[in-house]
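Thread title: Can someone regenerate the structure for this chain?

I was given the following input by a collaborator and told the matching structure tokens would be attached. They weren't. Posting the sequence so someone can regenerate them.
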Amino acid sequence: MWNTAARGLWRSAKGGFMPTMAAISPHFTPAEVAIGVDLALAEAVNSGITTVHNWAHNVRSPAHADAKIAAMVRSGVRGRFAYGYAQDVGKDQPMNLDHLSTIARRRPSNLVSIGICARGPDRSSPPVWQAEWDVARRLGLPISTHMASDPKSAASGGIAALAAREGLGADVQLVHLTAASRADMDRVAQAGSPVSISPWTELEVGYGVPPIADMIAAGLLLGLSVDNMVLAGQADMFSVMRLSTDLARGLSRNQLLMKDMTALRWATIDGARSLGLGQQVGALTPGMRADIIAVRVDALNTAPAADLPSLLPHAARPDNVSLVLIDGVVHKRDGQLVRVDLPAIRARASASVAKIRSAAAI
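Best answer:
Regenerated them for you:
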């Protein structure tokens, strides 16, 4: 969320996504990251996303973390703030565990909880990731980490290293697994670690084609992610569902490999379960919190609606979302956001990214 104002800036004179992010990330002040979160949350709600996972992997100071958390609380959107590290921190340097311990003592709000996003075995040294795991578990915080994103990472044996140290489990969400072997997937499934995939950005950044059919066969608990707007361009969970089903069917050459309802579950109840929120949200069930969206079925692209489980992943778009409730509070009504000043957010975001590009000489 922190880099949302840099939408589409996935390459520059500095190179592709990684070099470009390395060039601009040091120039994000606490105010700049808060603007990114404001913009991301507004787009999420507009798209019908009621729960977010703020993967804050550019926490450059305690003030940066505090600014992002404040933006989330202000928004009234449900979600987790995953405390992370600065983009340019060394592999042998942990995140700010002292500040993490401080903010973990009190939940920011009824809707916002705290977790960590760690570099894990693939992107940090053993003493670092082990210390971060130990602190997170002592504090009772859920962990999320990129794993086996590409062949080089997968070959390094990070998943086996986690398993050997009992570093997997329901409290440890693994992101991507694009290049994971079937043996590693089986290991993850046996340990009960949920997996989050973001097929659009995994393709766009060059990780490869997510092996969704193998993930299904392994019995992994899957949730779907937009990832970041720098790569994805838009927060459209409908298109993420569509791509996920189509990749699974195309790669397996089996149109009946999975049902459309499966993708809908990945975007709702299974996504909630992957964040440990399956008892609160993700299904229209008595006792759940009232996080509800309504999608028009009389629009040009949705009518006639013969089969709703197929309509949502294959025809619906964010502009078809007419109503969004989060914890019973209306955030979008009659297709219009009601709790944000969109012109102000757009103006602030435009000024922010212009300032950052200038500072980074991009």
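The chain has one domain: 4-288+348-359.
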